[in-house]
Give the backbone structure.
Amino acid sequence: IGHVAGGARRWLVIGPIRLQPGEMAKICSIIYFASYIERQHEKMYSIVSGMLLPFMVLCVVSVLLLREPDFGSTVIILSVVFCQLFLFCRLGHLMISGSAVAVGLLLLVYFSPYRMKRFTAFMDPFQAASSSGYQLIQSLIAVGSGGFLGTGLGSGRQKLYYLPAAHTDFIYAVI
């Protein structure tokens, strides 16, 4: 179900409103895990009773997001929850589970040509300046040309067809 754009089915269309479930999942995950840690903070030092349930919930959310596919939201949620758990878990438990998650994400990138292309473009956008790195380079130019204070709200030049998808994740570069 949902609206397809850019090869992904990430949007739910309800009349004139278009929502991304991944954005709602980010907010709900942060609130859920903060609440869970607050309620179960005595158990957080145990790997079974303290960390097993959060990681099961995290796995379900991650699998659902990866089915859209929304790899970016998955990485953001995993990073934020990892930081939340970092404050209340034993470092050894967290390092083991964090390493497992990192290896899993790296394998997802490695075995998906599309993700690998985006990852390599992110690491060095100038290698593919006219193709997969173009959007990132244009956003860097937009942010760089504005300097510390910017060019003024709505006065940036990169949004004038240099930044192809300015209305998406690169809205910061436009503002």
Q: What stands out?
A: Residues 129 and 137 are 7 Å apart (CA to CA).
